[in-house]
Design brief:
The protein is an alpha+beta fold and 310 residues long. It has two domains: 100 residues, no CATH class; 163 residues, no CATH class. The protein is built from five helices and 20 strands. The strands form five sheets. Strands 11-19-20-16-15-12 form a six-stranded mixed β-sheet. Strands 3-4-1-10 form a four-stranded antiparallel β-sheet, with helices on one face. A hairpin with a 4-residue loop joins strand 19 and strand 20. The longest helix is centred in the C-terminal third of the chain and has 17 residues.
Length: 310
């Protein structure tokens, strides 16, 4: 299993102006050009430099963090996907048609193709004084919790704090006068949308859409992002610590039934399990939150606001 680790160093006595030029030349993040501390080239990036001093003229005590990401470790920065430290750019034509990496349209059923792009420069880390090595720690990957276990945990908090909230129209972020419930309705080419959700914002998705799974994932990510920004509502439950269980499965409706009926909580049928981990990673790359994937019959995300580290 590919693991991301953080190497921490303490450096003393370097002037602030020299400090950042040393670790972020020209104001940019850089990778190791050659092998460094047993790590292969271009697997380590100086990601954080934090210092304190009484004045600009005084000596500075600094913490330097280097993040190690081996090839095969997938992460996100905003909406950009990374393999190690190489950005992965979706191969598609100007009109949005997915390509196979060789300039031809992607065949139906084939997974999307991403082209690696080197976006970071590099320097020789062996020529840099990082100071005294302190520790190397693994960074937690996406955590999971079973739906029933999460509800028991929330119930204990309610019992201790004495209050909770449950709503179909959530108020997780900035208050708005109107925040419609949003749903994605899966149709086939033979049916028109017939599911009625009063005061809801409905987005239809054709089941026969080329590369349906990829399109559905993109739509769900957009839905979650809009929820986080307070534009739409998703069925959710809030606890007294500010955490919100977002029942994402409630947002997807299958309206492809021949008898005209609709099926609910079908998210697990349409998206492989690892897609929930990807959603969690992308949300944490966009917002200052901690996220756990909620497994079970009603999958979703448990989102807890994170305190900003100064």
């Amino acid at each position: 299993m590919m693991t991301e680790t953080i190497l921490r160093f303490v450096l003393k006595g370097v002037h602030p102006f020299k400090l950042f030029q040393r670790f972020h030349p020209d104001g940019k993040r850089v990778l190791n050009r050659t092998e460094w501390r047993g790590r292969k080239p271009r697997t380590c990036c100086i990601t954080r430099v934090h210092g304190s001093a009484t004045s600009l003229e005084s000596s500075l005590s600094s913490t330097v963090e280097v993040t190690f990401r081996p090839p095969g470790f997938i992460s996100y920065l905003g909406n950009t996907r990374y393999d190690g430290w190489d950005a992965l750019i979706l191969d598609q034509a100007a009109d949005g048609v997915l390509l196979d990496g060789h300039g031809k349209p992607l065949k139906e059923g084939d997974p999307p193709v991403y082209r690696p792009v080197k976006v970071y420069g590099d320097v020789d880390f062996n020529e840099i004084d990082f100071g005294e090595f302190v520790e190397e720690v693994e960074r937690d990957d996406v955590k999971h919790v079973q739906h029933d276990v999460l509800l028991e945990e929330i119930n204990r908090r309610i019992h201790h704090q004495g209050h909770f909230s449950f709503s179909m129209v959530s108020g997780f972020m900035a208050p708005r006068r109107n925040r419609p419930v949003a749903k994605i309705v899966v149709l086939d080419h033979q049916r028109q949308h017939q599911v009625i959700f009063p005061d809801a914002e409905i987005e239809s998705l054709n089941r026969n859409e080329p590369h349906f799974t990829h399109v559905l994932y993109v739509r769900l990510l957009r839905l979650l992002t809009r929820f986080m920004q307070g534009e739409v509502s998703i069925k959710s439950m809030s606890d007294c610590e500010g955490g919100v269980y977002v029942e994402l499965s409630d947002s997807l409706v299958d309206a492809t039934q021949k008898d005209g009926g609709s099926r609910f909580n079908v998210l697990k049928e349409y998206l492989p399990e690892h897609f929930m981990d990807d959603l969690a990673r992308q949300i944490t790359s966009l917002f200052l939150v901690d996220v756990r994937v909620v497994d079970g019959e009603q999958p979703g995300l448990y989102i807890l606001p994170q305190q900003r580290e100064l």
